[in-house]
Amino acid sequence: MGGLASNRSPIKPLFMKSHVRVLITKYIKQVQCADFEEANNLLDKIKELNPAMGWYHHALLYPMYWGRHDSPNKRYSKQIAFLKKSLSYDDKNANVWRYLAGIYLQLRELKDADFAIQKSLQYCKSGLCRADGLRFLGSILIAKGHLSVGLAQLNKALRHKNRPPLMQLARHFIDYYNALGNQKMVNYWVARGIKSARTIDASGKQAYGPKDVYERIIRDLEAFRK
Predict the structure, then answer these.
(1) End-to-end C-alpha distance for the chain, whole angstroms
(2) What torsion, rounded to 10 degrees, do the Cα atoms 58, 135, 172, 95 define?
(3) By three-state DSSP, how is residue 181 classified?
């Protein structure tokens, strides 16, 4: 991937960090309400106080707002640029590296995907972060043809005490069983993922995104069922 230019912000006082957290909470609520214009206004304020977090969230918002009509390749290219911008301010954010790894995986740029996920795992500070990283590492290994090693990483994520929701893990296990041509197990993981999405939706816990996010997850999973 090459080196990232250093563009670091000075250390913020505690009150400023607290203010950024408040702004991010408000911003996410606006995203969940699909009020993207107001979300963008809040995002501009976040960028002023914490550019690293601001550009990270800019990358997350891009496909829902500015780039919703873009082709996948153009959208991914823009998101990569925004994530690298974030990393130029803070290159130790595990979440940014993991999201970048996911985009490179979609583009089948596997060398870059592997580099990014290893960076993410290096900088993880929580069990949830590590479990999340393992599911992406598993899919990257599977895409590189290392099926048994990739499956082992997915099973580590599945057994982890901070296991990601099955609606997220399902997509990675589908990668594995698709590579094997095992449609029966693909359908099994489709069913598990959909059940998980419906359970979380019914709980009232809102994911990052508009309120139809679970419907979109279910549609995406259904596409693999035969």
Answers:
(1) 38
(2) 0
(3) coil
